[in-house]
Amino acid sequence: MSLAAPARALIQPGAEEALILLKGVWKVFKMPSGTFEALKNINLSIRAGEFVSVTGKSGSGKSTLVNMITGIDRPTRGEVRVNGTLLNTLSEGALSVWRGHNLGIVFQFFQLLPMLSVLENVMLPMDFCNRYDPAERESRAMDLLKMVGLEKVAHKLPAALSGGQQQCAAIARALANDPPILVADEPTGNLDSRTAAHVMAIFTDLVAHGKTLVMVTHDLSLAQQAHRVLVISDGELIHPAIVATWPHLSHAAMRHLNRHLHDLRLPPGAELPPSRGVLVLEGSLQPGTTRPRPRLHLEPLAAGAWHLFERPEEAGHFRAGPEGAWVLRWDESAWERLRQDAPDVVTTLQSHRGGQA
Q1: CB-hemisphere CA count at 13 Å for 7?
Q2: DSSP alpha helices (H): ranges in 156-250?
Q3: Locate the ABC transporter domain: which residues (predicted)?
Q4: In the chain, at which end, N or C, are there fewer CB atoms within 10 A of the end residue's CB?
Q5: pTM of this prediction?
Q6: For 296-311, how does the pLDDT look when each residue is reduced to its tens digit (9 = 90+)?
Q7: In what order do the strands lie in the sheet with 51-55?
Q8: CA–CA distance from 303 to each of 46, 164, 224, 239, 286 (Å)?
């Protein structure tokens, strides 16, 4: 089994404050034909109150990533810490109890118990976790159903409801114990566009009121409603700056960029090392007073800007601005590896040579 790491994905600044933190997470499944690496060196932080969407092709690792966060599955290697708890250390029983108090999970196929009424389905998590006084549970469940517009069907069985109504009931159930985190795995996958928009409106309102939401979806238009879009490709988490800067590229092309760009923090006034290309994440790069060629015109590069250099030494005519700079860059060797691995990506970049995300 080889765990050769691809280029690391992003842990945001302030990761120590994250509500959800994955560090060096691998998931390897043993198959009859050998091993399958479903997740490869995932590093990710999500802060409280964030709405994060996870998108990618079927089999890319989206659901496996979410299963790490919920504790439904365990990493082969690495750490998963959610709301201060290191999930790797919990037994199955302790995980079940922890999950009931910290997570609300919304599934694509609703997962409502067919023999219980909608109201009883929403009350069930409270009964399981003994979270509220028994006398309060029915009124709390009814309040949640009112919030999602289902108070009039509270006493019906799930089979009597439309697909959209069942999903709204599932959202109410996920909120039963007032968890800080909601995880939704393809929550609109079986809904028409109008009902999907209603579900998204509920999610947006919940985030506005302080919930943290992680949503897996194939629908890019829905994914873009989140604060942050995570793209996973072949088990690798693509750096968000790559997704934002080159959204037109295929996921395979993004994956190549992810493997060859390396981050660098520059203190104020520090010179950019020889580079073939740079993408500014934070701060700015300012051109110096000298020019590598008399007619070469250099513009300041603000956060979100990227630029390719014809020669690596031209990068040395940029310095970090007064606030410093955090950049992704290609050195000469990384650029040559990219040229060998993905010449079409290099051609695409060279056709523009620079721009703003």
Answers
A1: 21
A2: 163-174, 193-208, 220-223, 240-245
A3: 20-259
A4: N
A5: 0.81
A6: 567 899 999 999 998 8
A7: 103-106, 181-185, 212-216, 51-55, 228-233, 236-237
A8: 21, 41, 20, 15, 12
> Which residue carries 């410093």 as its tokens?
324
130 Cβ partners below 8 Å, 6+ apart? Answer: none
Q: What gap in Å lies between CA 66 and CA 215, rounded to an integer?
A: 9
Distance from C-alpha of 3 to C-alpha of 36, rounded to nearest angstrom: 11
Domains and CATH numbers, the chain: 15-237 (3.40.50.300), 251-356 (2.60.120.10)
Task: Give the whole-angstrom CA distance, residue 148 versus residue 165.
Answer: 9
Q: What is the pLDDT of residue 7?
A: 35
Residues 287-345: tens digit of each pLDDT: 876 655 555 567 899 999 999 998 899 898 899 999 999 999 999 999 999 999 899 99
